[in-house]
Amino acid sequence: MGDTDPTGPVMDRDEVDRALARLGAEHEAIETSLLALQDHAGRRLLEGARLTGLTQERWTATEAAITLLWTYFDAYTDALRTARDVRARRRWSSREDLVELTELLRGECVTVAGSAAAPTSIGSTGRLSERYSLAALVDRMNELYATSLDVVVAADVVWSALPARIDLLAAELQRTRRLAHSVGVRPGEHPAGDDLERITRTLTRLREQVISDPLAFWQPAQGSSAPGGGKPDTTVYDREARALEDVRREIDAVLTVRQDAEKRIVRLRDVLSRADRTLAEARTARGEVLAKIAATEVPVVSGPPTALQEQLSTAAEYRRHAQWHRLSPLLESLEQKAEDELLRARESLTAVTAPLAVRAELRGRLDAYKAKVARHGLAEDPVLVERYEKARRMLWSAPCDLRAAEQAVLRYQQAAAELLGTAPRVPGQGVPGQGAPDDRKGPGA
To answer: Which residues form a coiled coil (predicted)?
Structure first.
């Protein structure tokens, strides 16, 4: 054991037997892995596919690496067989046998010919021949195997995941296209129809790219050493799936319009009819105000908007011709405009009838004070009778001067308050179109 050679101390029989057992186990494991790689579904698909781009480039290198792997394995097998044969010569190996076995098991005794060691992107260095120890050759085979398996597994995972998902989305796309066509959503006529065409083109192109270049859609996991560590890149697929969902929601909205169109059009007619009636009432009230109230600014009442009626007729036309995609936005716009029109009509009626409301309030106030003084037995007071009759004539005659009538009511209140010993309530409501009354005037004003 004291003698040495370039491989180190000469191994004894026990060391030789342990090394042969370890190398034999490694040989069996490597053979199992290589056979599994040979039979891997991803490798068979890569061999039979028409590849492009990154996948074509990497698979060309990987095929060379797998060929080199088998060459290395055959060389490893031969070297291990030779070592086993030397060990089997004698039950108790001689010193010459142990020196030879030490060289075989530890030295660079495995030579790979230059044709097998041709340079590849993931293969060898390109020398005419390479010499390895058995341990170094195992490390080299493990390296090539891991790199080759990464390529095969990554391609297989992408092919197993993306095309099936694309096909399912394409089937949903076809159903949506048929549904869209049934409600008039077609390319060139509706944005959703154009979106469906674009999604169709994108999915077709995406599937072709995934089939021919799966590695272009692979995202390696950061820091992962597992074979094929990573996941398929579904960015384009996810974007188109969201776009299709948006289109589907829009089609559903159009379908809802088709179901509810008649009721919504009837409701629109009713709202516009109420707005027209309210405007007509406002116009009538304006004539009454101008006849009954003097010196008052009364706002002009506009006529019904013909544009809304024309749009409503267009909506009915769309419904008759099943143009649901055009009817949907038109109805939404009309519903808001019709509600706005009804509100405008009501505000117009309120503004026009405000003077009549003021007159009614003054009449009510005058009668309320008359009832109050009557309860105190003061109804026949000459001053009160005079001021009451004056205010009453003003309020019940036409045209009524609201400013003067309000002053007359206030004077009656003040006279009643003096007799009752209470201060009169100062009215808070002025006359529309006129200034507020001068409450500082006395009863005799």
So the answer is: 244-278
| Tens-place pLDDT, residues 320-377 | 777 777 888 888 889 899 999 899 989 888 888 888 888 889 889 888 988 888 888 8
Q: pTM here?
A: 0.55
Residues 206-253 have pLDDT tens digits of 999 999 999 999 998 776 555 557 899 999 999 999 999 999 988 887
Cα gap 85→77, rounded to integer Å: 12
